[in-house]
Structure formats: C-alpha cells, structure tokens
Amino acid sequence: MTKTIYPGQTIGIIGGGQLGRMMALAAKEAGFKIAVLDPTMESPCGQVADIQIIASFNDDSALEELAEVSDVITYEFENIDYKGLKRLTEFAYVPQGAELVRITQNRITEKAEIRKAGVLIANYVVATSPVELKATIEEIGFPCIVKTAFGGYDGKGQVKLNSKEELKLATPLFEHGACIAEAFVPFTKEISVIVQRNGNGETYCLPVGENIHKDHILHQTIVPARVSETIITQATKAAEQIADHLQLVGTLAVEMFVLENDTIVINELAPRPHNSGHYSIEGTTISQFHQHVRAICGWPLRKPTLHQPTVMVNVLGEHVVPLSNAISKYPDWSIHLYGKEEAKTKRKMGHVTILTDDINKTLQEIDHSGIWSE
Ligand code: AMP
C-alpha cells in the first residue's frame, strides 16, 4: 500500500554516508525531519540529521528504534543487513521493500534478474571454488573478469584473467564465497542511467551520463553522454525495463557498457542514488535526491530535464587541499564536500559540478587546474 508522507514527518535513513547526507539535505528543503542509523557519530548524514542512532546496521534494537521515530524508512547503500531490512518491513513503512537489496547484494541473483528483464549482459558462469571455475571458464573464454558475488565495489573483489595460466590469480577471491566469471567487454564508453519510480509506477530517467573511471573509482561524469541517439534510447529503455521488472520504488542506478557496434550491455545495478547522478543537483530540473524523496514519500514525480551540459568531477582525499586552494579561481564551480574528517587518499570526500556550453573547454579547464593531475 502506497502512503503519502508529509513535511514535518520523519524519514529514517539506514546509512550515514554522503548519499544519505544529500538525500537528507533535499528532504529538509521540504520540511521533513531526518533520523539516521550509522555506526559512527557525526557521519556525513548524521551532521545534518535531526536524530542520530549510533549502532551497526544489523542491531535489532537500533532498527526498532529507527522504526519508532520514522514515518518512512529508506537506505543509502545496498550492503546493509538484508535480514534486518526484511524484518523491518514487517513493522515499519519501507516502501522500497527488501527484495531489491537481496537481489543486488549478490551478483548472481542480480545478473539473473537483469536477464529476466530481457536486457543484455555479458556472458557469465557461476563458480563456488577454483576447481569449478577451471571447469567452467571455457564457456566464457579469455580475457574474462572474475568477481566475488558478494560485497565488491569500486573494482574491489575482482580480477582480470588473460589466459588459463592466470587462473590462480582468482583463487583468493573464493575466500569471500562464490564468484562469477564474465566475458571481458571491449567497451568504447561506460554510461549510466538513474531510473526512479514511485509506488504508482510513475517512472523517470535522468539524462544518460558518460562515466570516466580512474583506478576503478568514478572520476568524471559528463552529461549528456557523448554517444549516439540510438544508445541514449536503448539505455533509457533498458533502465525502464529493469525498473518495471523489479517493480522498483525509489532509485536504481544502471551501469552499462557501450560497444563499438552501437549497442549496450548492462554491467551492474545499485538500488540507490548513485555517484554518477550527483550532477543532477545543479544540472537538472530535479535532482536524484529530491526525486528519491518524492518517490518514497508517495509524491508525484517530476520530469528531469537538463538545464545545460554538465560535468561532475569527484574529489578524493588527495584533491581536497588543491581544490580548496583553487576556489577563488573558479566561481562557476559548485563545490560539494561531505563533511568527512579524514581526507584519506582515494576516499570520496566530495565533488565539483560545472554547467557549461562547451564540454571540451570545461574538460580542459579541469585539466589545467592541476587539481586532478597524477
Ligand atoms: P564493477 O565493480 O562490476 O562495476 O566493475 C568495475 C569496473 O571494472 C567497471 O566500471 C569497468 O571499467 C570494469 N569492468 C567490470 N566488468 C567488466 C567487463 N566484463 N568487461 C570489461 N570491463 C569490466
């Protein structure tokens, strides 16, 4: 049953990272109160929340406390405790349900569902041991990528194999449980679509973003993606098809590879606002965070349209000081920092968004700033 949640009521967020923080900031504009569950005090979301519950995500009594103070509950990342979330759905209002978290926590169930939705993915096999991998890998061939089924992100928990001789490189991955091996996709570009849907089935996609990674971490998102109209249409349709198949409520990020023959292959899903959608805070008529709040609160969704071409660049630990020193030079840059205390190397600390009439000129400006040079 879809409920409407009104300003003045409280949104509970499981997870206190930057996604929760940006969700909370969007919700507070409309007058919602925020409660957050996170193991750390003054987390990025905790700093802007009304209520902080400090406990681990699988702490039953903390989840009960969150339910008690919240009128609706959402989550900001998928590696939360599925069983805890499932239990929460029995006594709290969790319009997104727990099923999508169960599916996307595990690459095996995720890939099976993407296939069921009728969308293309790279060929893959499942293996529970190095011996099984050796026996089945021929179905995929080389090069291929072996990934842990559970818990990988930003390229962690995966290894590329170029030949049979390299099979032993994948052995340590099995310490974390079952793995999948998938064909290496010779992509020309990586893109993503953020699709959002409310309980009435109203669905909108953000404009397609082109993603550039460095060391497996998202570095830049360029919107509109520099791909053909055919790709934009295919990508948007695929995201909507997956959202419909999963009966999505809330937000789903769909990462895709673009191939030379102008087709797409789905890489992976994230059941939450996504780093590649941060550009929408300034770049579109409604941000992924505002839309997420509307979706879980049973409000009608708004069609997102792009104000202007937009570039988003991530700010990692090593970029914080050079960025701060450069603020006076770039009045057109929107600076976002997430309030994390320790600027560790490679840790996501914030991002910069730039609206532009000339993407190439802006990419050059970013380059010339020297902030992101190696
Ligand atoms: P993932 O954690 O699955 O998103 O993988 C992280 C990154 O590894 C992706 O953004 C790609 O750049 C690369 N990658 C993952 N899977 C493949 C694949 N099957 N073929 C080629 N590159 C891949």
From TrEMBL:
EC number: 6.3.4.18
Keyword Nucleotide-binding appears in the UniProt entry: yes
PROSITE patterns from the UniProt entry: ATP_GRASP (PS50975)
Pathway(s) it belongs to: Purine metabolism; IMP biosynthesis via de novo pathway; 5-amino-1-(5-phospho-D-ribosyl)imidazole-4-carboxylate from 5-amino-1-(5-phospho-D-ribosyl)imidazole (N5-CAIR route): step 1/2
Binding-site residues for ATP, renumbered to this chain: 107, 147, 152-158, 182-185, 190, 213, 267-268
SUPFAM superfamilies per the UniProt record, alphabetical: Glutathione synthetase ATP-binding domain-like, PreATP-grasp domain, Rudiment single hybrid motif
Catalytic EC class: ligase
Domain annotation ATP-grasp: ranges: 111-297
Record field: catalytic activity: 5-amino-1-(5-phospho-beta-D-ribosyl)imidazole + hydrogencarbonate + ATP = 5-carboxyamino-1-(5-phospho-D-ribosyl)imidazole + ADP + phosphate + 2 H(+)
A GO cellular component annotation in the UniProt record: cytosol
InterPro entries the UniProt entry points to: ATP-grasp, ATP-grasp_carboxylate-amine, ATP_grasp_subdomain_1, PreATP-grasp_dom_sf, PurK, PurK_C, PurT/PurK_preATP-grasp, Rudment_hybrid_motif
Single Gene Ontology MF annotation: phosphoribosylaminoimidazole carboxylase activity
Keywords (A to Z) from UniProt: ATP-binding, Ligase, Nucleotide-binding, Purine biosynthesis
An example Gene Ontology biological process: 'de novo' IMP biosynthetic process
Subunit structure: Homodimer.
Function: Catalyzes the ATP-dependent conversion of 5-aminoimidazole ribonucleotide (AIR) and HCO(3)- to N5-carboxyaminoimidazole ribonucleotide (N5-CAIR).
PANTHER family registered for this protein in UniProt: PHOSPHORIBOSYLAMINOIMIDAZOLE CARBOXYLASE (PTHR11609:SF5), PURINE BIOSYNTHESIS PROTEIN 6/7, PUR6/7 (PTHR11609)
Family as reported in the entry's similarity comment: Belongs to the PurK/PurT family.
Protein name: N5-carboxyaminoimidazole ribonucleotide synthase
Lineage summary: Bacteria, Bacillati, Bacillota, Bacilli, Bacillales
Gene designation per UniProt: purK
